[in-house]
Amino acid sequence: MSQTGIRERAKSALQDPLLQQAVQFTTDRLRTRKANVTETFGRWQEWRDRGRDIRAHTIAHLDFYLQQFADNVRSAGGHVHFAADAEEAAQAIVDIAKKRRAKLVVKSKSMVSEEIHLNRHLEDEGIQVVETDLGEYIIQLAGETPSHIIIPSIHKTREQIRELFTKAGGENLTTDTKALTGFARRTLRTLFQSADIGVTGCNFGIAESGTVVLFTNEGNADMVANLPRTHVVIMGMERILPSFADLEVFSHLLPKSATGQNVITYMSCFTGPRRDGEADGARELHVVILDNGRSRQLGDADFQDILHCIRCGACLNVCPVYRQIGGHAYGSVYPGPVGAVLTPLLNPGPEYADLPYASSLCGACFEACPVQIPLHDMLVKLRRRHVAQGLAKRGERAASRGFRLVFARAGRYRAIIRSGRLGQVLVARHGGIDARIGPLRGWTQTRRAPVLAKRSFREGWPGLRQELRQGNRPPATGTEGAPAHETAVNKE
Amino acid sequence: MEEQAFLARIRERLGRQDGAPVAPYRRGAPEFWTGRSLSSADRVSTFVERFAQQGGQAWVCPDLTDLHNRLEGFLRDLAPPAIGVWGGDTLKEFQIDGLLARFTVLRWGEAPAKSFADTHVGITGCAAAIADTGTLMMAADAWRGRSVHLLPTVHIALLHARQIKTRLGEALPKPGERVPSSLHFVSGPSRSSDIENDLSIGVHGPAAVYALVLAVEGT
Questions:
Q1: Predicted-assembly ipTM surpassing the 0.95 threshold
Q2: What is the pLDDT of residues A65-116, one digit of tens each?
Q3: Range of the domain at A466
Q4: Cβ-nearest to B6 among A84, A138, A296
Q5: Total count of domains within chain A
Q6: B186 contacts on A by Cβ (under 8 Å)
Q7: Measured between beta carbons, which residues in chain B are less than 8 angstroms from residue A269?
Q8: Could you give the C-alpha distances from B196 to A23, A177, A188, B193, in angstroms and in order?
């Protein structure tokens, strides 16, 4: 909301050409791949419809399915913890770690674990935490946070990665991808073997069986879940699907939307811990189910649908704003259009009230969404809510009041246009305005504002109407001043 | 937070009564999808093609001799210091014991689980395969350890053509069915694009996945 809001963060992102280039290259690539794979697959809209229907049904009956899921996790031998907020969730996991006297925790990628600041909580207890997704491992070594939901390290170059890996003990590393991944494989393998606890997120929880389903490409989540003695799953409470039959739908929607892959490399379904006679797999399974502001969206006609989100990141890849500023500018765990909606919903108040303004409202996010969440509508409704709560800036409030004043009466509108035309003489140069003054400043800082037309459409309309009545098309070049269609639209 | 209070909060927000019935909904994949079926020959050829698209390699073996020749060829080329194999009778139909006699072999359920960390090749069967996506499904139990196909650099799966289903839904557990502790769906080798969008293979899981599909019924 203040000067450290998205405007400032975006400004610093815009001054980093490497970051911009990387973000644009990655989002272009993911978007093109998605377009190709969905076209080959066919009937994509019908799949989206089914996806939306299943998610809407699940969320509308979430109490029922969550109870069924928890009961089935327990009957498969797992433990379930319910956490009202981030603090409770982190505490539940810290308690498990302390009870197990854990020294080393390995993790696979989980946005929710970022949401509850799990690493900090564990490290405060003297427990070492290692991220094992290659991209997350890289940014953990760099002491940073993810910049993309799916590819967290898009802002790092291979030379930077080589330096980070060398500092982490890699000897004679080249910048070759193979050499770098080879180092990560060797280093992380030994950590998987010696870790006390593995923490994963959860892409879907199957209610009918109490199954936790993970989608990964690298296979690190399988190491994290299977090799340490204890497996802790942290999941948002909305991550439920009623049945395995429904999982078939999302096994197509998720990877195709996220990375344009026809199928994810590893889909792993865990139903309870290892069973009698089995010699691998975690001996103990804990599932931590998090609310943290999610239940507040239930029953809210404007925002309940945000809980349908399956965290594919497709909305990031099509967003013209994300494309320019990257993930860090959103200042929270969830970037892009979904973040601009979800973050202020989960954290009401002034801190993130400016995020819904980081959008052009073009609706590309809605078109890309595999479950058709109307993100662009939600962005407008959030702006309205912020105004109603008095969170809007003074300038914005004044501008809106002025707009209402002028546009409510035709006479006022005419008068303001006329005086504007006179006034612009002072600042217009070559048919455009560059001066960074008054209410124009926000626009002219980065672009040219067009000058007002010599004659507005309204002023030209009586003559135009007469011509239309007479059945004549307006002439290409007018006799009295410029032709109507040129006076209405500025040609600059 | 206490479980019932947590669920009650959700129920209240949704305006639902405790124990209120669940409305019907259209479950699972669209009917145009579930109504499809490929012939058994098409299932095999589609599986082989899609498995290759995922970066794996699959061969159709007309008989056991052919399967043995191919497997022997792989192992000769790879010269693995240690091979991990599913235990018990799980691979009996493929009759590979004689062929493996020349190698150091760790059998799941007999050798200690930790020792599989040092295997270079893992040989398994599968619970099912999926033609649509080129996918192998492994279900864990006492003889079918997860580590056998997860830890080595090369995973070789042996399967019968009849195990190949058209779509994922046919391989997923049905309502009320007992679900294994781990169901693992594998579509090709481990992959990552986290370094400058450059695809790299084998960052955590196997770098190569081979499937040998036995086209006739095993003896």
A1: yes
A2: 999 999 999 999 999 999 999 999 999 999 999 999 999 999 999 999 999 9
A3: 458-492
A4: A84
A5: 4
A6: 265-266
A7: 179, 182-185
A8: 10, 9, 20, 7
